[in-house]
Amino acid sequence: MSALLQANALSQTFGGTTAVKHLNLSIREGRCVALLGPNGAGKTTTIRMLTGLLRPTGGSIHFQGEKAGEDIRRYIGYLPQTPSYYGWMSGEELLIYAGQLCGLSGRMAKTRAAELLQRVGLSDAARRRVGGYSGGMKQRLGIAQALVHSPKLLILDEPVSALDPIGRRDVLALMTELKEETTILFSTHVLHDAEAICDDVVIMAAGRVAIAGTVEELRAAYRQPIIELRFEEEDDRSIRWSHDVLAGSKMIAGGASVTMQDGALVIQGEDLDQLRRSVMQMIAEDDVKVSQIKAGYTSLEDLFMKAVGSGGSMDRLIP
Ligand SMILES: Nc1ncnc2c1ncn2[C@@H]1O[C@H](COP(=O)(O)OP(=O)(O)OP(=O)(O)O)[C@@H](O)[C@H]1O
Ligand SMILES: [Mg+2]
């Protein structure tokens, strides 16, 4: 399947700072793509280049079916990270204004505004001043504005980062509905939000793509069986036992690595059933006083932390 948007070796330098370095990105039609990364990773810079607001210092961007010399901005709807509105306008007036800027007649713009207000759940607030909208309402209005010209690709820069839990939930619910109709690229530094709604993930660190793939691919490729043990405090035998396991003088069958994290002994291996069996057997045989045992898999959160944590581990993870 050909990509809706393809960016090749995209770079951006501000004076002496390289914000984005040789970034390759492919957005497939119909997908919801999360652009993840910590503050300063280069998400906004990437997005501003994709939307045509910032000319790349290197690389190229292609939109599916674009004709030579065509302005691809007509295919893209964009919600900036910090949008600003005329607070004295009503939501309806603002959308009519946006529609007219896109070339719609007054009547068409009014019809489109009503449709969009309905679509983002703001019909009841249509006549209220935008200055009095809550954060979540403003973001939903911003999404409506980005949809005015029926774009093929909707790009949202941190659509939920500044919102309280209720605003967050509302905007994520709207995005979940919209992703059935449009291709979406959105940035966030919260993995949980990304995992909740996206199909594909691109993790950026220091201006580069550290990891990219579908959510399923990343889960399958990076998740590892893990067992976490906590012991009764001040039990000498348990403390000695955990030290022995940590030092490797006591081996757990199937345990590939052992670390101590926040006072818990963390054992990673290849096969969860085997790991659990051998851990339980050893605990019983050595009569260790365990207060808590947790068995499961490393999460995408662990992967994200690994990818953005340090330059060294990032290089290791670049496919
Ligand atoms: N106009 C500019 N002039 C100079 N440096 C810039 C400019 N815009 C961004 N930068 C730098 O480029 C780097 C990437 O910034 P960018 O805003 O793209 O990151 P981000 O991933 O969007 O971060 P955040 O999560 O904080 O929004 C940062 O080091 C930033 O200081
Ligand atoms: Mg940003």
From TrEMBL:
Domain of life the protein comes from: Bacteria
> One MF term in GO for this entry?
ATP hydrolysis activity
What Gene3D superfamilies does this protein's entry cite?
P-loop containing nucleotide triphosphate hydrolases (3.40.50.300)
Q: Which UniProt keywords apply?
A: ATP-binding, Nucleotide-binding, Transport
Looking at the keywords, is Transport present? Answer: yes
Residue ranges of domain ABC transporter in the record: 5-231
> Which Pfam family, an example, fits this chain?
DrrA1-3_C
Annotated family: Belongs to the ABC transporter superfamily.
Q: What is the protein named?
A: ABC transporter related protein
Taxonomic lineage is: Bacteria, Bacillati, Bacillota, Bacilli, Bacillales
